[in-house]
Amino acid sequence: MIANNSSSMHRRRLPLTMILPVFAVMLVNIASSQSRNSLALADQYFEAGEYLTAAGLYEQYLNPVVKEKGNTDFPLNIKKNRAATTGHYTNRLDIVYKQAESYRMARNWMQALALYQQCYEKDPAAYVEALYWAALCQRQLGDLVSAEAGIDRFLKEAPANDALVPFAKKERSMIEFIRVQQARPDSILFRVGKLDNAFADRGVFAPAAAGDHFVVTSTVMDSAVAEGTNPNHNRLFTARLVNGRLEHFEPLLIQGIDPSFNQGAASLSADGNTLYFTQWNKENGVMVSSIYYAKKSKNGWARPVMLTSIKKPGANSKQPFCSPDGKYLFFSTDRKGGLGGYDIWYAPLKADGSTGEAVNAGTAVNSTGNEQAPFYHVHSGSLVFASDRMPGMGGLDLFVAKGEGASFQAAENMGAPVNSAGDDAYFFAAEGKGLLEQAIVSSDRGSECCLATYTVSKSPKKKFITGLIRDCVDNAPMAEAEVIIKNNEGMVKSMVTGADGTYSFEISGDASQYFLVVNKESYNPKEAGVQVESVDESGMLEDRIANTALCIEKRIVLKVENVVSVYFDFDRYQLKPRAMQQLDSIYTILETEVTASLQISGYTDGLGSVEYNQILSDKRARACAEYLLGKGLDQSRISFESFGACCPVEMEAINGRDNPDGRAMNRRALLHIVREHLSNVTHPQK
What we know:
Blueprint: H1 2-12, H2 16-47, H3 51-62, H4 92-105, H5 109-122, H6 129-140, H7 144-157, H8 165-182, E1 190-194, E2 196-197, E3 205-210, E4 213-221, E5 232-242, E6 245-251, E7 262-268, E8 274-283, E9 286-297, E10 300-301, E11 305-306, E12 317-322, E13 328-333, E14 343-348, E15 359-360, E16 371-377, E17 382-387, E18 397-402, E19 412-413, E20 424-429, E21 439-443, E22 452-458, E23 462-471, E24 482-487, E25 492-496, E26 502-507, E27 514-519, E28 526-529, E29 532-536, E30 542-547, E31 550-552, E32 564-567, H9 577-592, E33 597-602, H10 610-630, E34 638-642, E35 653-654, E36 657-658, H11 660-666, E37 668-674
Parallel strand pairs: 2-6, 23-30, 23-31, 33-34
Antiparallel strand pairs: 1-22, 3-4, 4-5, 5-6, 7-8, 8-9, 9-10, 9-11, 12-13, 13-14, 14-15, 16-17, 17-18, 18-19, 20-21, 21-22, 23-26, 24-25, 24-27, 27-28, 29-30, 32-37, 33-37, 35-36
Helix pairs in contact: 2-3, 3-4, 4-5, 5-6, 6-7, 7-8
């Protein structure tokens, strides 16, 4: 028995040299099965749009080191032109290429670039398209020289019928546009900085004003999810901006939220009592998004309700924005009736939170591309939105259209550095300020893999008032005229016009708050407020405000040989007996010649200040006028000018010595009888 048992055991036990190879084969089969499973799982995640998770699983298949990263899915639903097919790999490089595609779709540009370059270097003929995608990554990372070289090489080596050739030509134009934007002279006026936040390891984007704080979108990881399901979901938070940093993050409490859905891109009604936001998830592998609204409650926000007034069967709607004046809800949708892809639409808001019939924002705003993430700034009358149209700098760019409702002007690319080579969206600017005075944008510029929040501010352009001084008689430009500009705050500047009669002053604030004084020898002074004729804002560094042209009138200077001279004592303006006799004679003539008029000009000697002599000469001219008015002469027949120490008829110093007789001859008033009435003079008051 024992022997038999012993013999039986001996027959069942295999030699160790046989066991080890069998065990090794089993391990290989298990490892191969696990590897095949990770590859299949990677393809599954790729098909589901979970690109960063797929990239980690491809890495697990290709290399022993497993590196998993979270994924941030933000509500823009951008399709990056082309996604690689899954399955049916012919070699290892096919999987490396698929991993590169995964990183690119996840906007992880550095990793994608390295893998695309690896594929092309090892098999240029089979992976010529890797040149195009590598160039796209280089452009995204700001390396325009390498990107341009890569595009040119792709266009040279790729077959003419390659599906990516049209996109490569578009990419070439995009690089040229970026260069032009980066060379803009007004770039010195901008300041751009990444906004720090307490969620240092998470992307924070789409800030919406909510009183003294913001509602923002960020990512959380759900602890229990099914295999093959992305554990990361977008959620809404409140945050406060403290010293240039987003802090005090708190989850936004909304009752009855379905945890399988993503929430984001929110906006509050003007009264703060209704919250609008996007909810989206995948249905049969397709992303579906709708706009919901929730009413304010004691403990946060009530259970959200789908905004059925703008919901269309088979269409997506997302990224709502309530205009600050409470009139409209702007949103993005791919419903029928648009120009192509996603369009911006708007609908009148109702008191119960619903809306009226939605209207397409029109061809001035929308294009055949995708328009998304609308924001309306009432203070500047500007609709800002994201679009992938051309001309663009890459991905989504921010555009601005001036106007309201159906009267929007053609949208313009906001250019660098507001836009970057990456995706730029979710614009915000506070009301009551300029559009770019203190703005916030969401962007994945640089090497960022996900949307982050950036501040953008632009110093105001210089502002100039320009104009022309002319002669009132012949309209000729007036050279060497002194032009003085003033405002009520005490600002005073002056300049002298050149041969073309023009002037230019740099100002700040409202041009209508300024006024001008024009002086020129032998001309009457002119004072006038600024009256804007036109504004040229085309300059990148300055605006030029054209003032209406001003004309000045020439003073009437009476020549000594043609007039009666009346003399005064030193520092006096009282009439002497001889002067009264002369004025009586003049009155008699004027009584006889009823169509004649009298011109009077007053003068002083050279002693005393300019200001004092101007006043004294005016008193001497007025003394003559008032004497004649007192005799009954109508004031409309008298005009006078005051010239101070101007125009001496005798020298007041001879060989360096005072000449009292000469000065006495200069202390005078000149009276000239003319046979036509003059309208360009000042009449004395009785």
